[in-house]
Amino acid sequence: MDKIRRRNALKVSIAGAAATTITDPQLALAKEANPIPAPDQEMTLKGETFAPNSDSNPLEAKIITFTTVSSDVDASVTFYRDVIGMTVQSDSLLSPAVSSAPGMGRNDRRHVLLTMPESQRSAAVRILEAPPGASEIRPRPTSGPNDPGLLVMEGSTRDPAESYHALASAGTPMISPPRYYYFRNTMWGRDVDVMSYAPFGPGGEQMFITANIRGDRPPPRSPFVHSGFSNAAITSLDQRPVNEFLEKALGLKRTSQMECYQKNTDELIGAPEGSYFLWGNVGIGVSIEVWEVKAESGTVYPCSLDKTGLAMLTIRVNDLDKCRSMCADAGINPVGEGALPNTESEKPEGFTIRGAVGELFEIVQA
């Protein structure tokens, strides 16, 4: 009797599905426009592939500055200088209208640039003074990794315990203690065997601090506990628009992808238990990861320079005019002209564009 009931239920389910298919006008139109070929008809399908490293970054794009907006610039300077170990390169007031990036405004704002000594691969950290009463870009604790946009700036350490102790002793907010995780990246030809934790800077910017713990790991990039910050993660619910934007605007192509379904990483990033996501890099050397989080919904919190937190990535390219032309051809219009001072130039030439999930990219000439 149970088998009969299940069989009848299956018939009802199939019939209901078939009825839905037949009466769905949008699907009917789609079938008419794109008829399914007969089984014996030859056809060519196109898919997505991973680009070789040599073809993945034609403009030699590279993150050179992470911009954080802080309501307490002194606290931010103290954190990056005394806890992370960075060096202040400049501390000044920006002249009005140096950049028209979203949220920049017209008033003088304090602007501090810090770099990591003896670490050539790391980017600078820019601390930009927030206007009075500034709100957060990504409100905490309501926002999380399932909310698309610019999520973190990632740095490295020679020892996760030593790093965690230094930040915990300074009262740094964190999601969890260091968590171990492992991936096998066949595209890179090596395993990712690391420990990481996620602290928050005084401006509310989220970071990952990661230690390579493989036995055959290379020597640390810096003689200090921390080696600075070099990588950014952009989260999405669908990686394809993000990948497409980065390829059209900067020529960047996806070079790798891995999957993550580990309790430890959920605890590390503050994701609900049982979360699943894909992640990988675009463009060799640019240091951008794109994540696709398998979630039903999320909220995009657009970046702006009048809100606190991680607000913008400054990306250096070898041909600014070509990049501008590529953006124009793709219908990507600048949202700001000019560029903020960086450690390579006090008056850089550049413009700002907004990415597929609200992130800001300041593009400057090498």
Question: Could you say which overall geometry the principal axes of the C-alpha atoms support?
Answer: globular
Structural class: alpha+beta
Query: Can you tell me the CATH class?
Result: Alpha Beta
CATH H-level superfamily title: 2,3-Dihydroxybiphenyl 1,2-Dioxygenase, domain 1
Order of helices and strands: HHEHEEEEHEEEEHEHEEEHEEE
Number of strands: 16
Second rung of CATH, namely the architecture: Roll
Helix amount: 10-25%
Cα radius of gyration in angstroms: 23 Å
The total tally of domains equals: 1
Number of helices: 7
Strand percentage: 25-35%
The average pLDDT is 89
Largest sheet: 8 strands, mixed
Outline of the structure:
This protein has 366 residues and is of the alpha+beta class. The protein has a single domain (53-365), classed as 2,3-Dihydroxybiphenyl 1,2-Dioxygenase, domain 1 (Roll).
Looking at this protein, list some descriptive labels:
366 residues; alpha+beta; 2,3-Dihydroxybiphenyl 1,2-Dioxygenase, domain 1; eight-stranded mixed β-sheet; disordered N terminus
